Amino acid sequence: MDKQYSKPEWAEKDEDSFASFIVPAEKAVERRKPTAKKSREYSRQEIIEGIKSNSKVLLSKAITLVESNAASHFEIAQDLINRLLPHSGKSIRIGITGSPGAGKSTFIEAFGKYLTNLGHKVAVLAIDPTSTKSRGSILGDKTRMEELSRDKNAFIRPSPSGGTLGGVARKTRETMLLCEAAGYDVILIETVGVGQSEVTVHSMVDFFLVLLLPGAGDELQGIKKGVIELADGIMINKSEDDNATRALQTKIAYQNALHLLTQNTPDVTTKVFTASALKNIGISDIWDEISSFIITVKKNGYFEKRRNEQIVKWFNSLLNEAIMKTILTDKKIHESISTMQKDITKHKLSPVYAVHKIIEQIDKV
Prior knowledge:
With 365 residues, this protein is an alpha/beta fold. It is built from 16 helices and seven strands.
């Protein structure tokens, strides 16, 4: 059947050359909306067995439960972690931080590929304190590390959003335990290098690596001197081509500076390396140093001591947080704390006496 065309109402009646015409609409074809395929529900035992057999799908499901803020998921996640704890702790945990533009992502991809080629299984996790504000993930790790993300022996997980840096850190710690239970023997934890995040990452790893750029001091690099003091190793990245001379000068400057600092780890001197992640130069030297470091600290007992201190510190931090949360749920105590805060700023009470009064009130509850 031929379509009937007509001119718009506003067209001149005698205008034969008018170019616009109205075409009647076709009768709408009724279409069914595609129904979303419901994802399969797995039992806790299936998730545990799946993780132990290195199923990335079930590892991701367990991590999603850990990252969830839903109360119903908390008990499940903790049960999974406690049942998998005996299978965790066997990895080498490496923290990586650096100044903006130091090439952390390029290094992690090159380093990760180097390790998987050696036969290691590598998990890349991230701590991004800005995700507590944006509720987002760190710069889309998988898009920044395309080659590594396709490696069957690598697993990349962006930063969770946790509401606070402590929340992000807790979820990252628990994700690390799950990855270890899945057989990943090298865990790389990246931080964007903002505020307290470097200290947080240092508190959960065996080796802390700081990436720097050639030819710039701490102030220019946006790196706090305290972070250099935490370093177990320093890498001057982007040391290729025209940067080679400046990189060597930067290396010597930091080596001299490290002599003035207290030794971070017993029997180990913090080393400074020049490398190029882009050109794959010096990557093997970093791994050789980390391997040598781990052998030394396992031999002198510092490896176990450091891990034990880290887990006790984490426990104390969680306990303090839980106690404060419990205290603040009491309306009267919450009001008293608010009053005391105002009083100490107006110099009506000393902070020590104000705390004493709050403790007295808690004891009466």
